[in-house]
Write a structure and sequence with these properties.
- Belongs to the Ntn-hydrolase family.
- It comes from Capitella teleta (Polychaete worm).
- It holds the Pfam family Asparaginase_2.
- The chain contains ten helices and eleven strands.
- By secondary structure, it is of the alpha+beta class.
- α3 links the parallel β3 and β4.
- The longest helix is centred in the C-terminal third of the chain and has 16 residues.
- It is globular, with a radius of gyration of 17 Å.
- The N and C termini lie close together (7 Å).
- The model has no long low-confidence stretch (mean pLDDT 90).
- Bound molecules: N-hydroxy-L-asparagine.
- The site of N-hydroxy-L-asparagine (SD4) has 13 residues, from β8.
Length: 281
């Protein structure tokens, strides 16, 4: 069984890319990196969501977080608050494979990227699509991708520019193991998106994988994670969170809260958390 799942509707491009690569025999790690990078650097439509053209921070700089986790080796590679690089997921892959460390941040992450042959781009070239467009069209800004290849290897990856106007150096849940992503070849993988400052202490991706390990379907595991958060924060207001999961059998599922800050700002009705999926069945 081969399968691919991604967060939000723009994740469809990542799933299509993953399908192409998984069907041509690529392994999950490659397929996940290529899918993330395709969306990060998507020149086909002129609309960018993550990576190039993501939301600037409070100082007007694009500062990206990205991570990959391999469910077979349990190796983890992440870059956080990385400036000047349009495809942070590619740097995260290099951290996973070519660095003795798992996480590199800020200047250190950029220094590492340079040592790996990446080019630091000018800020103007990284503001390729107007954040205004992204805000008003209701696009979300975190891509989570999970891929399962024919050998049974499952990999999760994420890429985000984080919260728009964030404090320089701020990191959310997305590039943290157990937070924005988790993968284990014995069970499956999960990835989540939403309000990272609120999400972070709940470790939703780890919890979803553990629940699948206890026998829940991916859908039931995702719903259970969201319900537990809702119960735990009651009577405070629920925050924005969406989670996708894929088992090593290729079964998928997702759940989300019925709240999205962009819709509140723009006065749009939110119809639920969209995600994209493909499997070879
Ligand atoms: C963050 N979780 O940095 C990300 C933002 C996000 O859709 O997922 N937006 O907090």
């Amino acid at each position: 069984m081969k399968a691919s799942v991604a967060t939000w509707s723009f994740g469809l491009k990542a799933v299509q890319k993953s399908k192409e690569n998984l069907c041509s025999g690529k392994l999950s790690l490659d397929a996940t990196e290529y899918a993330l990078a395709r969306v990060e650097n998507d020149v086909s439509t002129g609309v960018y969501i993550v990576g190039r053209g993501g939301f600037p921070n409070a100082d007007g700089f694009l500062e990206c977080d990205a991570a990959l986790m391999d469910g077979n080796s349990l190796k983890f590679g992440a870059v956080m608050a990385l400036r000047g690089i349009a495809t942070p997921s590619r740097v995260a892959r290099r951290v996973l494979e070519n660095s003795p460390h798992s996480i590199l941040v800020g200047e250190g992450a950029q220094q590492f990227a340079l040592s790996q042959g990446f080019t630091v781009e000018k800020e103007e070239d990284l503001n390729a699509s107007s954040s205004e467009f992204v805000m008003t069209s209701g696009h979300s800004d975190t891509l989570g991708v999970i891929n399962l290849d024919a050998s049974g290897n499952i990999v999760a990856g994420v890429s985000t520019s984080g919260m728009p106007g964030k404090h320089p150096g701020r990191v959310g849940d997305s590039p943290l193991p157990g937070g924005g992503l988790y993968a284990d070849d014995r069970i499956g993988a999960a990835s989540c998106t939403g309000d990272g400052d609120q999400i972070l202490p709940f470790c939703p991706s780890l919890k979803a994988v553990l629940k699948m390990g206890q026998g829940m379907t991916p859908n039931a595991a995702c719903e259970s994670v969201i319900k537990e958060i809702a119960e735990r924060i009651f009577p405070k207001e629920m925050f924005e969170i969406g989670i996708v999961a894929l088992s090593v059998e290729g079964e998928y599922g997702a759940a989300g809260s019925l709240k999205r800050w962009r819709d509140i700002i723009t006065g749009t009705e939110y119809k639920g958390f969209p995600y994209a999926v493909w499997n070879s069945d």
